[in-house]
């Protein structure tokens, strides 16, 4: 607590698709072990290092355990603000890593082996709350940023734009956002599926289910650990929260999952009309995010003003990236020679992010 903590950045390499294999695409990304990956292609020969690298054969469980996601859940229960986000080119496996197969529904759930970081984290969270014997109150909110408009994915009726506000105590926050309480795995998975089905997606040349918005699912965790006779001064110091007799002060943590829309070249996707407008909006917000990360990667004494206000996305991620949060970034890439340019862009982006520090 209060110490400088680096962002944890892990890399996931998806397998070549059937289309890429039939087309004769070469594999240009190779894992070297110990968190290193090598890119080898004409005029490109580079090695990158990360906290962990998950190669094409890595299971969803291996990604959950090896990424540090379990520890992130435990820290959120302990009162920290925790964020996990996936980024990379469109079609690189971000949504699959976070959620598993898109075809799942309430009536046809995905195979347990294919569940993503989110569902596994929900299970871990509920298991932890039972084993710790603490009184946890859990609620969830789910929103998307589409064409720079913030929309609630859980509120009934057609999605409407919500205002983004700022206060000295809360930082940036979304006004009138619906938060739904839950106490079981079935309830939170149902909320996740309900919101995901309302999210904007489209088909184009690179991805049949391309996310056209950035989505943020936030789990709010409030705990009140009960003890019979706490000693004077015992408890969670400095929280500013009071508790009744025989109880420690409550702790409030958050666990936020961010599924960023994929960076894309409009020429490659064949997008036009509304799809082209969406792509330009996505790319502008990702550019703003990349700019903030580049500035945050500099030593604290050499940092200039961080332009969080350049986009709704960077405003909502301000605390996670440069404030008091604990953050896990999952960079997703394709090993295909045809995607080399976007893959290198993601790898450089992720390498810069490794130098960013926060003070949880």
UniProtKB/TrEMBL annotation:
GO terms for cellular component: microtubule; microtubule associated complex. Keywords: ATP-binding, Cytoplasm, Cytoskeleton, Microtubule, Motor protein, Nucleotide-binding. One of its GO terms (biological process) is spindle elongation. One of its GO terms (molecular function) is microtubule binding. The keyword GTP-binding does not apply. ATP binds at residues 88-95. Belongs to the TRAFAC class myosin-kinesin ATPase superfamily. Kinesin family. PANTHER family: CHROMOSOME-ASSOCIATED KINESIN KIF4A-RELATED, KINESIN-LIKE PROTEIN. This is Kinesin-like protein.
């Amino acid at each position: 607590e209060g110490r400088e903590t680096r962002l944890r950045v892990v890399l996931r390499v998806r397998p070549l698709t059937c289309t890429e294999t039939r087309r004769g695409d070469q594999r240009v990304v190779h894992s070297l072990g110990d968190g290193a990956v090598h890119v080898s292609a004409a005029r490109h020969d580079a090695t990158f290092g990360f906290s962990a690298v998950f190669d094409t054969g890595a299971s969803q469980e291996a990604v959950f355990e090896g990424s540090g996601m379990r520890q992130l859940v435990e820290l959120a229960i302990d009162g920290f603000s925790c964020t996990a986000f996936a980024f990379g080119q469109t079609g690189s496996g971000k949504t699959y890593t976070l959620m598993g197969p898109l075809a799942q529904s309430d009536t046809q759930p995905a195979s347990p082996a294919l569940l993503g970081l989110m569902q596994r984290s929900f299970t871990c969270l509920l298991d932890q709350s039972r084993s710790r014997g603490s009184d946890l109150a859990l609620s969830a909110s789910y929103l998307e940023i589409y064409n720079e408009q913030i929309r609630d994915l859980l509120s009934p009726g057609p999605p409407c734009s919500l205002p983004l506000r700022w206060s000295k105590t809360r930082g940036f926050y979304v006004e009138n956002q619906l938060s739904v309480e839950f106490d079981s795995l079935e309830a939170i998975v149902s909320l996740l599926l309900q919101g995901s089905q309302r999210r904007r997606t489209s088909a184009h040349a690179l991805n049949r289910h391309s996310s056209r918005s950035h989505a943020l699912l936030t789990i709010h965790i409030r705990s009140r650990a009960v003890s019979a006779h706490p000693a004077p001064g015992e408890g969670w110091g400095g929280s500013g929260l009071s508790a009744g007799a025989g109880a420690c002060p409550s702790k409030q943590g958050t666990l936020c999952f961010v599924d960023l829309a994929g960076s894309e070249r409009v020429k490659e996707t064949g997008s036009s009309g509304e799809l082209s407008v969406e792509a330009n909006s996505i790319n502008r917000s990702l550019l703003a995010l990349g700019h903030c990360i580049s500035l945050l990667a500099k030593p604290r004494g050499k940092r200039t003003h961080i332009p969080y206000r350049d986009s709704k996305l960077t405003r909502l991620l301000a605390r996670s990236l440069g404030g008091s949060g604990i953050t896990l970034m999952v960079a997703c890439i394709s090993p295909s020679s045809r995607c080399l340019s976007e893959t290198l862009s993601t790898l450089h982006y992720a390498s810069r992010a490794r130098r960013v520090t926060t003070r949880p």
